Amino acid sequence: MTFYSENISPDNLTGAVFAIEGIKDACVILNGPTGCKFYHSAVSDSQYLRSLSFDPLEYSEDFYFGQPRVPSTYLDSHDYVFGSGEKLTAILRSVTKKNFKLIAVINSPGAALIGDDLEKFLQQEVSGIYCFSMENTGYSGSFGVGYQNAIMKVMDTITMCPKSTRKKTVNLIGLCIYQKYFESNYKAIEALLNLCGIEVISALGATDSVETITHAPEAQLNVVLYPEYGMKIAEKFKAEYEIPYIVPDEGPPIGFDAAEAFIRQVCIALDANPEKAIEVIERARARAYLFLARYSSLLGLPKGSLFSVKAEASVAYALTKWLCTYLGMIPAAVSILPEADTSFNIKLKDFLTGISYEEVLDRPIIETPTHMLFADGSTISQLKLNDDTFCGVEIAMPTLGYVDVTEKFLFGERGALFLLEQVINGLRFI
């Protein structure tokens, strides 16, 4: 059976939109038909809540169509022939009244073919507000390319502070609002680093304001949490502001070992003391042992149970290694998203080869029986169509629609406890 929906993944247009929508006081104007607007607006609003009202009538003005985010020029056949200038002028006049600090006009792929001079309209209608346009985000590029290009465009547009390094400070690179629990993960890493006397200046497109981002050049170090979404940004910082960067050797801080390795690596780079943060991680590890020991003594699980993972290479590496080495679980299938990072592809393959399971990289997720599936909601729902008995754990977007009232984490010691809770409870019903 061919699963065509497996090929559906966010592209560079989506990456560019969510990069800007992740900035606290920025707005994306989508120059395109209404069909390009609704998904981006819905996800932006659900992932990063700005408005307290859910009444569509609150957003009945032109260009918003009952949603609080990503106003659109709603292009039609007339506009594709005669241009979108009239609508662009009107939407810019509307948006500039809403106290945004940054406005970005982004063409949909179809609108890019019209050839309107977006910069001309921005110069005519916007004053006193940072603004830029992206006439073409690419026609077949990946989410990571669009995201990084948009963040770098922000860096070129706003007035960044002069380089004046503040000791023991970092930027977190690669966090994005299109990541599961991104805001909680930001808080988790910031809390651990603060215990080490390290200040986080900015995470760029992960809820920081324009003002906060302007101080990013003051950081002593850039930490690339997701190389798939941050390497080009980190290299730009290094070239323009001489800020060195590191990529955590064990990938994103998922699991106790990776979290500890992350803290130690950052502290070595900044000559900071990691002991307070390590103590917090060790206390969480001790708590995990109490539950894991009792659970394993009764059922022998989770050791020997099967798991599958669908994620970016860096996430897949960190999660797979933790599940195998800490919980003794067995990989059934590991699928890498198009947002691949060569170094972590190699690390993942080497790890699986070392435990004699390299063949799982070639197995399709949807056709492989498993006990636990760590993936996005869409992939979990696809596997459920096979009538397989398994537990799905959402670690990526899109979701199945579960509303997270309580904060949840994937990073740090709290993320490790959350994932362990999912495994222990999930295996009980298989």
UniProtKB/TrEMBL annotation:
<dbReference type="Pfam" id="PF00148">
    <property type="entry name" value="Oxidored_nitro"/>
</dbReference>
<keyword id="KW-0560">Oxidoreductase</keyword>
<protein>
    <submittedName>
        <fullName>Nitrogenase vanadium-iron protein alpha chain</fullName>
        <ecNumber>1.18.6.1</ecNumber>
    </submittedName>
</protein>
<dbReference type="GO" id="GO:0016163">
    <property type="term" value="F:nitrogenase activity"/>
</dbReference>
<dbReference type="InterPro" id="IPR000510">
    <property type="entry name" value="Nase/OxRdtase_comp1"/>
</dbReference>
<feature type="domain" description="Nitrogenase/oxidoreductase component 1">
    <location>
        <begin position="14"/>
        <end position="424"/>
    </location>
</feature>
<dbReference type="InterPro" id="IPR049939">
    <property type="entry name" value="NifE-like"/>
</dbReference>
